[in-house]
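Input sequence (134 aa), recorded before submission:
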Amino acid sequence: MSSQGPSEEELRAAYEAELKRLKVEDVLVQTVVSLLNLGGRKAGLAPGTEDERDPEQLRLAIEGARALLPLVEPVLGAEVGQVREILSQLQMTYAQTRAQAPGTGASEQAPAEPEQPEGPGPAQSSGRLWVPGQ
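Predicted structure, token format:
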């Protein structure tokens, strides 16, 4: 046995054996779990991660997990409830973070309503848009 560790061929063979054993569902589940764990860190929820808060990274973790969740629900079985609960907690944390962020607080002035165009728009002018009372 060599003290240098496995050769490149041995590493490649081990990698190929792992790929042969692995299923796409396994990777998807692991990805969802990784996104939820990373989202928890980016939310500052885990003890000692308060300085890692990053709302944009949290948003991406949530969106990624939400996109993959329908694909892994059948694989998760009874654990899907726990995954949904964690995702829900991250979404609530994100919403609270956005509400507290400067420029997004409730004390700010509501955005001005968009100006209404003068006269009917193209769909209404064509007669194809039904407008109640008109």
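Checked by second reader. The chain has one domain: 11-105.
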